[in-house]
Design a protein that fits this description.
604 residues; alpha+beta; Glutamine Phosphoribosylpyrophosphate, subunit 1, domain 1; Rossmann fold; 3 domains; six-stranded antiparallel β-sheet; five-stranded parallel β-sheet; 24 helices; 16% strand; disordered C terminus
C-alpha cells in the first residue's frame, strides 16, 4: 500500500457503540461488515470467481466475501500478503489477521473492553502511554542481536500478531489462532528442480510487478537481487516495455566491500536504467532521530541508514514499488543441513568436501565448521573428531580467551532472563536434517520482525517494497527440495544458481563471497560520531548505564577506534546497537516523534 499510513483503529466489545477506525488506507463498509486492510492478494481473481464477485473486486471486498463464506477460517483461504481488521457488527466480533510469511505487520493492545490495533507498535504506545514503558526483555534481545519472542514488542502491553495468525475479539474475550503453517511442497525426484524454481520465481516477480505503479528493483550485484532484476528485465523485454530502473548503493573501497564489478556485469546485459549512489564516507547516525521516528525505535538493520539515500533516489524518479531480493538466503537455503545429515551417517569425507561452500560464504575454515557439526552428533567418532578439532575453533577456547559475546550489564541479564530464554529458543542448527533446519530458519521470529522494520522504513520513504522470494509457492517449493539440490560439491544454494543460468551473468552465479559492510559502519561511527559515542559509552550519566556494561563497551569501542578496517563485524554490530539504543533513550524513546496515525472513525 504505497504512500499511505497503513491501518490502525479500535474496536470495542460489550459497549453500546462499537467502532472500527482506519488510517489512510481504504475502508470497506458493506452489509454489517467493515474492513480495513493493507493487502495484495495473489489469488484475488480466483477467489472473486469462487465467491461470485466481479473479477475487478478489490482486496477488501474479497476479504469480506471470504469471511461471509468461511467465517473465522477466511484467512486460511487468502494467498498473498495482508494485514486486515474486520468488524462484524451483528455478531459484535473483530477479526484481525496477518499473512503466513508476516510480510504485512499488525500490532494490538488490549485496553479494558476495547482492542486497539495498528501497523506500528509505537503508534499504540504513543496513543495510550506517553511515558512508554519499555520492556527489559526487548532491550536485552536488541542488544544481544536476536528476536526471541514472536509476540512481544519494545513496549509493555503492546503485542505483535505473529505471522500466520489471526485474532478474534468478542464479548471481551481475545483469542489467537495459528491458522496456517509453512509446509514443504511434494518433490518428484524425476523433476527438474532448477526449472521448477525458475518458473515459480518468475511468476512471483510478475505478480509483484503488475498494475499501474512504476516498478523498479534494488540491485546490489548479489545473486538474490540480480535474479529478481534480471527476471523482471526479461519480462519487460518480452512485453516490449521500458528498461527496468535499478538502484544500488556502492562503496569503492576497501575492495572486500566493493560489489561494483558484479553490478556492472548485470547492467551490461542490457534492459536496465541504472542509478548508483557512491556512499563512501557516509555518516550512519546523521539525522538518525528521524529514522528512529520512522521505524518506531532502533532496529537490527543498520544498513537502513545508507538505504535512505537509495530510496530517496528511487522516489525522486517517481518509482512507487521496489522489488527487493531480501530473504533469498533464508527461502532458498544454503543447504548446510546436509552437513548434519552426512555427519549423522559418518560420511566425513563428503562432509569435508561440502563444507567448502559454507566456509567461503562465512569466512570460517572448514575445520571450524566440521568441528561444530561433529559436536552436535551423538556418534563416538563425531565426539572424537570434535575434540581433535577444538583447538582450531576460537569460540571453543576457554571463556577467558574469547571476545565478549554481548554488552549487556549483569543487572539486565538477570532482569531479562536472557540466558534462560536463549536456552529455550529453537536453534535451527540443532535440527538433524536440512529440512528441519530450513523450517526453523523460516519460522524464526526474526523474519516477520524484518518485514515490520522494512514496512515502516519504506512507508517513511514514500515507497512500497515487494519480496518475490517470499511468495508462498516459492517458499514451500524450496522447503520441499532435498538437501543435495541446495548444496553439492561445495556450491551452496545450488538450485538457484542453476535456475538462473543464462539469465544472470556467470560471474554472479559463481560468487561464493558475501559482502560485509561492517567496515563502512565502523569507519562512519569513528570518523563522524566519535564524540557522541565516546559520551554514550564513557559517561556515568549515559542513558545506557542501566542496560550496558559500559566498561566492556568502552573496551570494544576502543578496539574499533584503533583500526576500524580490522574490526570484527560482531564487535561493530554490538557497538552500533548500543549507540542506536542510547540515542533513542536520549530522545525519550521517541515519545516526541509520534508514530500514531490520526484515526478516522467509521460507523459500525
Amino acid at each position: 500500500m504505497a504512500r499511505t499510513g497503513g491501518i490502525s483503529g479500535m474496536a470495542a466489545a460489550g459497549r453500546a457503540g462499537a467502532a472500527l477506525a482506519g488510517g489512510s488506507g481504504p475502508v470497506l463498509c458493506e452489509g454489517g461488515l467493515t474492513v480495513v486492510a493493507d493487502a495484495r492478494l495473489d489469488n484475488r481473481r480466483a477467489l472473486a470467481a469462487t465467491l461470485g464477485l466481479s473479477p475487478d473486486a478489490g482486496d477488501s471486498a474479497v476479504i469480506a466475501a471470504a469471511y461471509r463464506a468461511w467465517g473465522e477460517d477466511a484467512p486460511a483461504h487468502l494467498e498473498g500478503t495482508f494485514a486486515f481488521a474486520l468488524w462484524d457488527a451483528p455478531r459484535r466480533l473483530l477479526l484481525c489477521a496477518r499473512d503466513l510469511m508476516g510480510v504485512r505487520p499488525l500490532f494490538y493492545r488490549r485496553d479494558g473492553d476495547a482492542l486497539h490495533f495498528a501497523q506500528g507498535a509505537d503508534a499504540l504506545a504513543a496513543a495510550t502511554d506517553r511515558e512508554r514503558t519499555l520492556r527489559d526483555e526487548a532491550i536485552a534481545d536488541f542488544l544481544y542481536g536476536r528476536v526471541l519472542d514472536a509476540g512481544s514488542t519494545w513496549f509493555a502491553g503492546v503485542q505483535r500478531l505473529p505471522a500466520g495468525h489471526s485474532l478474534t475479539f468478542a464479548d471481551g474475550a481475545l483469542r489467537l489462532r495459528h491458522y496456517a503453517r509453512i509446509a514443504p511442497a511434494p518433490f518428484d525426484p524425476r523433476s527438474d528442480a532448477p526449472a521448477g524454481l525458475r518458473g515459480l520465481l518468475g511468476a512471483a516477480v510478475a505478480r509483484r510487478a503488475e498494475g499501474p505503479a512504476r516498478v523498479g528493483a534494488l540491485l546490489s550485484g548479489g545473486l538474490d537481487s540480480s535474479s529478481i532484476a534480471c527476471l523482471l528485465r526479461d519480462q519487460r523485454r518480452a512485453a516490449g516495455g521500458p528498461p527496468v530502473p535499478v538502484f544500488a548503493m556502492m562503496f569503492r573501497e576497501p575492495d572486500r566491500a566493493n560489489e561494483r564489478r558484479h553490478f556492472d556485469a548485470v547492467v551490461a546485459t542490457g534492459g536496465f536504467e541504472p542509478h548508483v549512489l557512491e556512499l563512501d564516507g557516509y555518516a550512519p547516525f546523521a539525522d538518525f532521530e528521524r529514522l528512529l521516528g520512522a521505524t518506531g525505535g532502533p532496529t537490527l538493520s543498520p544498513n537502513l541508514a545508507a538505504m535512505r539515500h537509495v530510496c530517496a533516489a528511487a522516489a525522486e524518479r517517481a518509482v512507487d514499488v521496489l522489488l527487493d531480493g531480501h530473504g533469498g538466503d533464508e527461502v532458498v537455503s544454503h543447504g548446510y543441513g546436509l552437513l548434519d545429515e552426512l555427519a549423522a551417517s559418518g560420511d566425513w569425507l563428503a562432509l569435508w568436501r561440502e563444507a567448502r561452500g559454507a566456509a567461503d560464504n562465512y569466512g570460517r575454515s572448514r575445520m571450524v565448521l566440521a568441528r561444530r557439526v561433529a559436536a552436535r552428533q551423538q556418534r563416538l567418532d563425531a565426539r572424537i573428531l570434535a575434540r581433535l578439532l577444538a583447538p582450531f575453533d576460537r569460540e571453543a577456547a576457554p571463556a577467558a580467551g574469547r571476545p565478549p559475546a554481548h554488552l549487556l550489564s549483569r543487572e539486565l541479564v538477570a532482569r531479562s532472563r536472557i540466558a534462560e530464554r536463549l536456552r529455550g529458543f529453537a536453534r535451527p542448527e540443532l535440527a538433524a536434517t536440512e529440512q528441519g533446519q530450513h523450517r526453523a530458519v523460516l519460522g524464526d521470529p526474526l523474519q516477520p520482525y524484518a518485514f515490520e522494520v522494512h514496512a515502516a522504513f519504506y512507508a517513511h520513504m514514500g515507497l512500497e517494497a515487494h519480496y518475490p522470494f517470499w511468495d508462498r509457492q516459492v517458499v514451500e517449493y524450496c522447503l520441499g527440495l532435498p538437501a543435495k539440490e541446495k548444496l553439492s560439491r561445495g556450491w551452496s544454494r545450488l538450485v538457484l544458481r542453476r535456475a538462473m543460468a543464462g539469465i544472470v551473468p556467470d560471474s554472479v552465479l559463481r560468487r561464493r563471497d558475501k559482502i560485509d559492510f561492517s567496515v563502512h559502519l565502523a569507519r562512519g561511527m569513528v570518523h563522524h560520531h566519535h564524540e557522541r559515542l565516546d559520551h554514550l559509552f564513557g559517561s556515568a550519566s549515559s542513558p545506557l548505564a542501566p542496560y550496558v556494561d559500559l566498561a566492556r563497551a568502552r573496551s570494544v569501542y576502543a578496539g574499533i577506534v584503533a583500526d576500524p578496517d580490522a574490526a570484527s563485524g560482531k564487535a561493530v554490530q554490538m557497538i552500533w546497537r548500543g549507540a542506536a539504543l542510547g540515542i533513542w533513550l536520549e530522545m525519550g524513546c521517541g515519545a516526541a516523534v509520534s508514530g500514531a496515525t490520526r484515526l478516522r472513525e467509521v460507523a459500525a
